[in-house]
Amino acid sequence: MRRRTLLAALALSPVAGCSAPGDDTSTDDSTSSTATTTPQEQPTTAVTSTRQDTPTPTVTPAPDDPILFVVDNDTDSEQTVTLTITRNETAVLDETATLAAGESVEYDPMIGATGEYTITVQVEGGPSRTIDRTIGRYAVRNGSNHFVDITAEEIRIYWEE
Which residue in 8, 68, 129, 148 has the most C-beta neighbors within 10 A? Predict the structure, then answer.
């Protein structure tokens, strides 16, 4: 949620080189021209692509904007919810919370590597949902928010980067 505050602040701040309504954008016609030269074209070599058998390197995550998971109980009653996140069959996060109606909980599983993650949500005595999600370099480097909404009819899992 810190990302929204930052984006709002950036949207309202002036940007260098931009003009505001009412600015005088006329130029002085007495400017002198400057000759420029174009550099000669440099020879290029073909770039070949080879498949790498090594795993993707770990990207250092931003400590101030982690990959967060927010579980929200949108029902009219208390719910016990288990959120499990795995990568290569290894648990990254396995948490259970009892949430009052309208309550939410936030988790930071400290994800610092790109790859395929399995997200499983289980409501005690109710539905469950499992999805596979590829978390890429952008999400690891800049953070992202994942939301789990528990409703009376379904479990919704979505994200924003």
Answer: 148
